[in-house]
Amino acid sequence: MLLRDQVNKALDALSKVLLGKEEPLKLAMTCLLARGHLLIEDLPGMGKTTLAHALAHVTGLDDTRVQFTSDMLPADIIGVSIFEPAESRFRFHPGPVFTQLLLADEINRTTPKTQSALLEAMEEGQVSVDGERYQLPSPFFVIATQNPSSQYGTFPLPESQLDRFLMRITLGYPAPAIERDLLKGGGTRHRIDQLPVCLKPEQLVEAQQACEKVHASDSLIDYVQRLLQHTRDHAEYSYGMSPRGGLALLRCARCWAWVHGRDHVVPEDVQAVLNAVVAHRVRAADDVASREGDRLNERLLREVDVLGA
Amino acid sequence: MHQVETQITRAAVIWQLLACVLVVLPHLEWLPFWVPLLLLLTLGARLMIHQGRWSFPSRLIKLALVVASSLGLILSFGHQSGPETMVALLIVGMALKLVEIYRRRDALVVIYVAFFVLGTTFLFSSSAWIALYAAAVLTVVISALLAIHQRKGVSVKQTLKRSLWLLGPAVPLMVLLFLIFPRLEPLWSVTLDSPQATTGLSDNLSPGDVSNLARSDELAFRVTFDGEVPAPRQRYWRALVMDRFDGRQWYRSQETGALRSEKLEQTGDTTGYEVVLEATRRPWLVALDQPLSAPTGMQMRPARTLELKQDLNQRYSYQLSAALTYVLQPMLTQAEQQHYVQLPDSGNPEARALAQRWFDEAQGNQQAFIQRMMQHYNQSFVYTLSPGRLLGDSIDRFLFDTQRGYCEHYAAATSFMLRSVGIPARIVTGYQGGEWNPYQGYLQVRQYDAHAWVEVWQEGQGWVRLDPTAAVAPERIESSAESFLRRSSDSLAASLVFRSDWMRSLQLRYDAFNFVWQRWVLNYDREQENLLADWLGGLDYWRLALFLMLPGSAIFAFLAWSQLRRRTPRISDPVDAALFKLQARAGARFNAREPQQSLAHWLETLAGDWPEQEGRLLRLAELDNRRRYAGSHSDREAQAIIKLAGELMSQLPNRTQR
């Protein structure tokens, strides 16, 4: 069985748990394939945790869930060295971060100190405690969820940390018909265990490598560059996209193309992942709460010609 | 929160200040000294406030500034309500607004007022240089307006270029409106007081008047001739006739009841010419000796001098015909005789005695008497611009003591002596000569060409011109005042006209340029009617309306087209060229490609709209996709694309068939 078919089978399986959410599921898978981390931003009860669990299950990854609270300390995530009287030395007890898929629930409930400990681990793929480095497992994938920051008792992630997440997606309310099914079925959480395991972790790594080989032509690179330039040249943006954002966009477009069975990227791939990759990296000039990224992206697509000129 | 949007960049502030300075510069000449100072102060304050070194002035300071400048305006302009007051008020308002720019809106207000101040420049001057300056400053003000809306980091060059781009399309429109827009009489008229008193002839003549005038090289008027140009000694430009003498000065009598309008019998050819007279603030006009008749709008006094019904406050041009040889008023009535021999009962006894002696010696022969007088001048008199002061009986002093004088001294002495022996005589003032400008073919007459001469009445011949200056300084009449002054030993006179040859030619060229500007740009309204009638073959309302609308809408249509047309890039790659051509043509018949649609995606959509060609379209979509995104470089495929695109274009349905 081809690797790509297995990935698509996994996606099919996932959509049985999260009904009518094919698009966010595909984006989440793309993010995983692109070796990035995913931020899901939505209200409580929209299926964020379900998505994370189901994704871990079908890809055969170990998963750990950490519920972030305001009194949490970095050691609660990373782990701690404890003195062992029997051995007369400190021994490192790894924290929940030592897992393949970490679900960091409500990351904006905790203090910036703890947030940045996690985000550093995400960036480096390793943690250092007492001068010792500990390698995190591979693949290492973080799905963080966050309540919209306008709610009380939250510490919104600053722009520099938002940038660490490859994608930010929202799930949104289900369509009426699907919600009726959902109500009849009495929830879907219990179905997760019945899902088949479609991928082995090694295969996932293999798929990740395959994605990197997807061809991006000069025409396409030009298009991506024009998109980036547009965000820098126009007054409606408070600040434009960074080169890292551009690389992220191209990486995601490659994975999206691979999932859709292409060995080259077409502009539609870029457009499909654009909102998830770009919306949290730009800010409208007149927008304080950083909520307007989607609106900007719509205009961005309308105004930048695929063929140039 | 809205700070982000409305913050003005530093560059914009600099532009703004520059614009304010430049629009006020032409007004410096007449503005009271404190207005520029106020502007400098507020400019500095604006800069300091923008840099954050000063805070915005408090309400109290602003109030004080307003009160102080209002008082200043009242003190400087008093009760006048002329345009100077209004423009000064505008400038003061602009200066004060500079210290309270909180928002973008306030900055815009300053810029709009700057536009207006720039426009008022033309109230005070309409020379070509001012027009050029205004155009340049307009670019700067528009740049300032642009800069307000720009983000940081736009270079000065870019801003200026943009501003020129905006002005560019206005130029054809301006030319068109200039050519055809009807010149309306102003709804209100403003009288502008010239900042410095204009030099010109006055209606009385005392010794020193003309020589004072001759110290100015200001332009008096310009003349173009229809035919042959009269010789220098025939170029006598009459302005005023002085017929009364009160012992000190000659003047025009107010009661002309006894005088008939003088009769002119032409004995030679007619010379047609057009005069463009500079503003004099006086009603009288100049005319070549002698005008045939007065055109409409002017009146002719009995002594055949022309004048307007009101003072001449702006440049004025008029056409006249002159007779160079004539007989004027061959018969005088008793009353007229009396009028022209009037003298005070006493005064200048030596001159009277001398005249009587010569008249007796000539045995009453008028010609011989005049000959004698002219010879006398020729012997020992000096023609000079600096004759010194004459006290008491000025004519006696001049004839017997100083023997130095300018034309008015000779004219006054001559007519005095003529009258004292009972020969009717009068003084004429005006201009004599002028400098020929070869570049535009016109005569330019300056104030130093001002002249005074005598007209003497002789039985049978009527009034005859008698110029005593010709006797004492014939070169003054034969060539021109300019060349006379140049050769004169008088250092003052020489300095007035001292120019090397190339400077002289430069000056002539410059004057020729100004003449063209005045005639074709400023005075175009006089030509407009003829020109339009010529072009349109009539001046009906519908013709004018059509003429106004057709080019106007053509210009607007062109502008709209250039703005709206899809900018298709120049494509060198033949494959792309074929595809873009197809895209343009098929896009016009079916749905055009959206910017975010890739070409392949659009072709697939097109296949839905144009099912007849579905196979070709999908094949083309696939080929384009391979070439553009999948990294295929096959020449065969490229040829296939060109072929397919060509076939599709030939298959395109006509609009009517759909």
Mean pLDDT of chain B: 82
Helical stretch tally of chain B: 26
Give a count of the beta strands of chain A, DSSP E runs of length 2 or more. Answer: 11
What count of domains describes the coordinates of chain B? 4
- Please state the CA-atom Rg of chain B, rounded to the nearest Å: 38 Å
- Report the helical percentage of chain A: 40-55%
In CATH terms, what is the fold-level topology of the largest domain in chain A? Rossmann fold
Question: Roughly what fraction of the amino acids of chain B lie in strands?
Answer: 5-15%
CATH class identity of the largest domain in chain A: Alpha Beta
Terminus-to-terminus distance of chain B: 54 Å
SSE class of chain A: alpha/beta
Number of domains of chain A: 2
Written overview of the protein:
The complex is a heterodimer of chains A (309) and B (658). Chain A is α/β, with parallel strands linked by helices and 309 residues long. Chain A folds into two domains: 3-172, Rossmann fold, CATH 3.40.50; 213-303, Helicase, Ruva Protein, domain 3 (Orthogonal Bundle), CATH 1.10.8. In chain A, 45% of the residues lie in helices and 16% in strands. Chain A is built from twelve helices and eleven strands. In chain A, the strands form four sheets. A five-stranded parallel β-sheet of chain A has the order 2-5-8-1-9. Chain A has a two-stranded antiparallel ribbon with strand order 3-4. In chain A, strands 6-7 form a two-stranded antiparallel ribbon. In chain A, strand 3 (79-84) and strand 4 (89-94) form a beta hairpin. The mean pLDDT of chain A is 86. Residues 1-5 and 193-198 of chain B have low confidence and may be disordered. Chain B folds into four domains: 10-189, no CATH class; 204-344 and 423-506, no CATH class; 528-561, no CATH class; 574-657, no CATH class. Chain B contains 26 helices and 19 strands. Helix content of chain B is 52%, strand content 13%. In chain B, the strands form six sheets. Chain B has a five-stranded antiparallel β-sheet with strand order 11-7-2-17-16. In chain B, helix 14 (394-402) packs across helix 15 (407-420) and helix 25 (614-628) runs antiparallel to helix 26. Chain B is α+β, with helices and mostly antiparallel strands.
